[in-house]
TrEMBL record:
It catalyses: a uridine in RNA = a pseudouridine in RNA. This is Pseudouridine synthase RsuA/RluA-like domain-containing protein. Residues 90-252 form the Pseudouridine synthase RsuA/RluA-like domain. InterPro entries: PsdUridine_synth_cat_dom_sf, PsdUridine_synth_RluA-like_CS, PsdUridine_synth_RsuA/RluA, RluA_PseudoU_synthase. GO terms for biological process: enzyme-directed rRNA pseudouridine synthesis. One of its GO terms (molecular function) is RNA binding.
Amino acid sequence: RYCAPYDFDFVCGVKARWAGRRLCDLFASEFPMRPKEYYVKAHAMGRLCAREHEDGPMLAGGNRVRHFIHRHEPPVMADEVRVLTVNDDVVSVWKPATVPVHPTGQYRRNTVLALLAASRRDLGRLFPIHRLDKNVSGLLLLARSSEAANEMRVKMEAREMRKEYVARVRGAFNDGDATPVSNVESLGFDSKGRVAIWRGKKGVTDLDERTLKSFKDASTKFTCIKTLVDGTSLVRCEPFTGRSHQIRAHLAMLGYPIANDVAYGGALVEVERARAIQHACDVTVLNEAGELVKDESLAIDYSAPRKSREQSSDLCPHCPRIVHAGDQAIDLEAIWLHCVRYSGEGWEFECPMPDWA
């Protein structure tokens, strides 16, 4: 699914760590998907500005930065965001993998919230109650008011909710070895703030202060559902805490990474890649009116040559094509991790199992 390209006015306050830096240098390092030459030219044209278009003075706290850009969002798979149940307070949906929940990074319209706003306007404004990673599928709970969202989050933080996922992991999962190890170390992140690591991991001896401070207790219970003929296993995962990448990191640490999760020891599955290529001939576009339309004329031929730098616009490397020039196959990879159930005292929401399970 592709979005029709659109103009977007990005506005943000200067963060503490940005203070004392020049505007173009800052954007070139913080948003490296474009070269510094682009930011210099955009600044000269008034499309990138702070302090009345001056790039000489250093940025300071309290400044506001604006960047008026022409955006081509990366694509997502065209699987439908399925509404499962609706009541006065909560909407439960089946989130497809590869689709972010809310605006993040380069995604604003190819998100669960934007797609529901286009296809189910009767639901009104929705508020995510919990996180679900972009490449993870399954049950997502959305509140119909900020008050309902806060009430559900309080219950979640008090651990009054039970969560259940299913994963397909590499190897024959051994219940006897793994189930007792429910409190599987504390999780932290490396110095780049991206890759989850765990205290006591082999080879990790020198940790900087920032990494040490990032460690938090994380607990997950695993139960083998069945072992499959291809040497993988279906595993029920019950996280008692909600740390980023918790299930993925814990399974990798136990020696049973999610089979197609390349970030944590898995490998790409050619069947999944073939499915993505097959779907490329069926393109759904979210147009300027916020409506979902199909247009086969926009289908992308990835065998066609890319535009040269001379053919590209100085301010948009993607035009005149709708395709995002930075597309990578890995961005459309779904991992075999699926949220199945959320429950509490007197209530329960469920999502059907995925095809790979």
